[in-house]
Structures are given as structure tokens and as C-alpha cells.
Design brief:
By secondary structure, the chain is of the alpha+beta class. Helices cover 27% and strands 34% of the residues. It has 12 helices and 28 strands.
């Protein structure tokens, strides 16, 4: 065995790329042992095809290697790599800018990206992407995507659409999806080829480039004629169907069909609030303090919860997140990132775990709003929630308000609709039927005192009873709209009352 010569080319896709050969036997693939920071990291056979090496005059084209750097070293710190032959013979590493003393120095990037183009349908290309910070373990969505045509950037979008399937599969931020409707102006060739990359990086999404085949003009005209005929037939069939259905007793909505009904309801609520102009006509814009005690939530649920607050149509709010000594550095960093990204979000960190009442009381002490809204760290607000509750408060003069609610699971399916009755004191004494979303004048809360730790587990029920005893019936208002989604998790009472005996 002769001297082994190692050529280092580059670092790419978290791997060391290069080629090597034995000076005494250039036609036989050699084996390299690799050490990182002096410790054995693995071995690799140098037999990958390298036609560029063969064209340069080398005896063999199968001399290449690509050694993946172990995840433990992807920490943003400087490390060194050394090579040796399988039988301990002499190894010579050809010098270049990265080679120092027969070793390669490198500093890894702890940020990697994951994403793919899912496919094309209904005139839209869909996909998803997120950034994975391997030093903290967080996987954050809302990445900027650059779209290229013929090598030139033509469009930029943000991958922030809700994708619970990706969140479940990768334990990632659910707001990581995107959709792109291809403009006709880009369809100047057939097929059209588009590249999808994370902005400001070289990372290209899986399944990119993505090609679309266009139909020629004659086929399009023919299909349009066929479509018009189908429309006429469909209209006739629809009239026939209505006539037949008129003879059949109408179906009613059931609990099992609630999710389908809910999608229609939330669209109708959005359209109604947008068209009413009530938000624009509002003469007062009081600050609403959203209280969010937090303790070791699931990251995707917590991220979605905060995003649902940021998405509110009423913008005059502050969100006070109190971390009840979760002892989770990733959660601390995540909360800090939210606070840095939106000045309306305030972060408080408790040194000792004090339970739900103490954490909530800390948030109440810091609250500056005229109204207080109580919010759990893994639930969701409907985008119009604060707007609807505030309009009801200003219109009725009520000091304590509550709305209807439902539940949502990890797949984003709505269930367990809870349409509550109007104010009923006797029912409240037997159960906390008010629950979410509780919306109260801050002055009223301070007049009755804060939450009591002795009631942890039922602290909100205890507080609501004390609040309502200070009010007349007219000062308590039921808002008959579904504005709050209670998250169903194995440890939540939304899933089972037995989870918190």
C-alpha cells in the first residue's frame, strides 16, 4: 500500500466532498478513516463517480467521496477533520485555503431547511418549508420562498399557511405551507419549469424544479366548449336533483357533521364582520390585555395559539405570556422571538413554578388594558374574536362577557360544539358553563381580588362566581358566536374530564 492522496473540494449539504486514491494502486478504490476533533467519526469508501477527475488525466473515475458530518458537530462551532488510510499508511492532504496542518477546519451552520413542492392542482402549486435550528431543536415556519423561471427570480411568497399534517409529521410550526397560482405571464414555454428556493440561501425544495405542461390554444378552445356543454347538462341535472330531493325529508345537521358546518360558519362570520364596517366605525379603541399563563406546551400548539392572537382583526391588544418556570430553553427562546417580532407581546418568566393561579396573577399585575381576555397556551382564537367581544361590550355596557366555543384536534378538525345559554346563575353554581372566552373589565377583576391558589384546577370557576356576585344581570352578556377553539390533547380536559381529577 502506497501513500494515499486526499483532495478536499468543499463542504456541501452537511458533507465533506472530495476524492482520494492510493499512489501505488490508482485503479482500486481506497478506504479512508475519518476523525473529527481527534475522535473517530467513521470510514468511507472512495468509489463515487468523478468524471471530472478522469478527464483531468487520472487513471480512474471512481475515486470520489462524500462523508456526512454527524449531527453532533452541526453546532455552529469550529471543528477539524483528519484522514488516514485503512491500514494506517501515510496520508497526504493536498493543501488549499481550508487545509491547516494536514487537517480541514470547518464551522457548521446549525440552521438547516426542510421543505418540498407537493404538486399542482386547481391551478395552484402547493408545498411547505420550515427552518430547523439544530442547536435549539425548534422548527419554524413562515419562511420566504423565491420562485425562479429560467434562472431568474419572478416571485416571492411566505410559507405561513396552516399545515397541521406537516406539524404532526415533523413536530414543527404548523404555519409553514404555501400555495402559488401560476400567472399566465410566466407560461412562455411548454413545459414551464419553476424552481422553489428558500430566500437568501441555496436550499432548493424537494421536487424542485417543478414542470407544468400547457395545453395548446386549439385544445383549450375545445375543452372550453365541452365545459360549456357539461355546465348545461349539470344545470339540468341539478334541477332534476332538486325535484327529487323535494320528495325526500330533509336531512338535519348532526354532531358528526359539525366540522363541515363550522367551516361554512367561520367563512360567514368573516364576511359578515368585514362587510358590516363596525370596526372602522368604532369610536373607541380600548386596549385589550390577553392573559396567557404558559407551562411546557407542545411547540406546534403554542406557536399556533400565539399566531391566532397576532391574526386578530382588532389590533389594539397586548399579549402577556407568563412562563411558569418551564425550565425549557427552547420555549424561552421561542417566547423571546415572538416578543421581538411583535411589540404587543410581553414576556414574563417566573423563577419558580407557582401553578396556574400565580402565573395568571403575575400577568394580571402587568396588564394595562381596559379589558382582560383569558387565553390558554395551546388554544386558538377565531380571527374576529376580540372584535366581536369588544363590540358586544361597548354596545351593551356589560362588564363580563362570554361566547360559544368548540374544540379542535391535531388534524384541525372542529368538534364538540358548545352553544351556551344566556346568563344562568344557578347553572354556574353547579358547573363552569362560561369557560372560554372569558372577557372582563380589568377594574372589576381588581375589585374582587386575584385568583386563589387554593382553587388551582378550578380557579377560573371560583373567580367567575366572585365576579358575577358583583354584577347585575344586565352587566353579564352571552355573545352567541363561536369565537374560541379549545385544543384537544391527551392531558387536557378538552379531551377528557378525567385528565385533571
Amino acid at each position: 500500500m502506497g501513500r494515499i492522496v486526499v483532495h478536499f473540494d468543499k463542504f456541501a449539504n452537511d458533507a465533506v466532498i472530495g476524492w482520494a486514491y492510493d499512489e501505488d494502486d490508482a485503479l482500486t478504490a481506497t478506504v479512508l478513516h475519518i476523525k473529527i476533533d481527534g475522535a473517530a467519526a467513521g470510514s468511507i469508501r472512495c468509489d463515487l463517480p468523478r468524471p471530472d477527475v478522469r478527464q483531468s488525466g487520472h487513471a480512474s473515475a471512481h475515486v470520489g467521496f462524500a462523508f456526512p458530518i454527524p449531527a453532533a458537530f452541526m453546532d455552529g462551532k469550529v471543528h477539524s477533520i483528519a484522514f488516514s488510510g485503512a491500514e494506517g499508511g501515510e496520508t497526504f492532504l493536498l493543501p488549499n485555503d481550508a487545509v491547516i496542518g494536514n487537517k480541514i477546519s470547518f464551522m457548521s451552520n446549525p440552521i438547516t431547511f426542510v421543505g418540498q413542492v407537493d404538486g399542482f392542482g386547481d391551478g395552484t402549486i402547493r408545498g411547505w418549508a420550515f427552518a430547523h435550528d439544530r442547536s435549539s431543536g425548534t422548527k419554524i415556519g413562515a419562511q420566504q420562498i423565491l420562485i425562479f423561471s429560467r434562472g431568474a427570480p419572478v416571485f416571492q411568497l411566505k410559507a405561513d399557511q396552516f399545515r397541521p399534517d406537516v406539524a404532526t409529521a415533523f413536530d414543527a410550526d404548523p404555519n409553514c405551507g404555501f400555495s402559488f397560482s401560476v400567472p399566465r405571464a410566466l407560461m412562455i414555454s411548454n413545459p414551464v419549469e419553476l424552481q422553489f428556493k428558500i430566500a437568501y440561501t441555496n436550499y432548493e425544495l424537494k421536487n424542485s424544479p417543478y414542470s407544468l405542461v400547457l395545453l395548446d390554444a386549439d385544445i383549450v378552445v375545445s375543452l372550453q366548449n365541452v365545459s360549456a356543454q357539461v355546465d348545461r347538462l349539470f344545470s339540468q341535472m341539478w334541477q332534476l336533483r332538486r325535484s327529487i330531493q323535494g320528495l325526500i325529508p330533509a336531512d338535519t345537521h348532526t354532531i358528526e357533521s359539525y366540522d363541515h358546518w363550522a367551516q361554512q360558519y367561520f367563512n360567514a362570520l368573516e364576511n359578515e364582520m368585514a362587510s358590516s364596517g363596525a370596526l372602522q366605525d368604532m369610536k373607541q379603541h380600548p386596549l385589550i390585555s390577553i392573559i396567557c399563563p404558559t407551562y411546557r406546551p407542545r411547540y406546534p400548539d403554542f406557536i399556533a395559539a400565539v399566531q391566532s392572537v397576532i391574526a386578530q382583526t382588532y389590533a389594539h391588544w397586548e399579549m402577556i405570556i407568563v412562563d411558569d418556570a418551564s425550565a425549557d430553553e427552547n420555549l424561552t427562546d421561542l417566547i423571546a422571538d415572538f416578543a421581538a417580532g411583535d411589540k404587543r407581546i410581553k414576556a414574563i418568566s417566573r423563577r419558580e413554578n407557582g401553578g396556574i393561579s400565580n402565573a395568571t396573577n403575575d400577568a394580571l399585575a402587568a396588564a394595562k388594558g381596559k379589558y382582560i381576555a383569558f387565553f390558554d397556551h395551546d388554544d386558538l382564537l377565531v380571527p374576529q374574536a376580540l372584535e366581536v367581544m369588544l363590540l358586544a361590550a361597548l354596545g351593551s355596557g356589560a362588564k363580563l362577557l362570554y361566547c360559544d366555543e368548540d374544540k379542535i384536534n391535531d388534524e384541525g378538525v372542529f368538534s364538540d360544539l358548545n352553544l351556551k345559554p344566556d346568563w344562568n346563575y344557578r347553572l354556574l353554581l353547579s358547573q363552569n358553563y362560561i369557560c372560554h372566552l372569558l372577557f372582563v373589565e380589568a377594574a372589576l377583576i381588581r375589585s374582587v381580588g386575584l385568583l386563589r391558589t387554593a382553587c388551582d384546577g378550578a380557579q377560573d370557576h371560583d373567580m367567575i362566581i366572585r365576579l358575577t356576585e358583583r354584577l347585575t344581570d344586565r352587566e353579564i352578556c352571552h355573545v352567541p358566536e363561536i369565537l374560541y377553539h379549545w385544543r384537544k390533547t391527551p392531558t387536557s380536559t378538552a379531551q377528557s374530564g378525567k385528565s385533571k381529577p
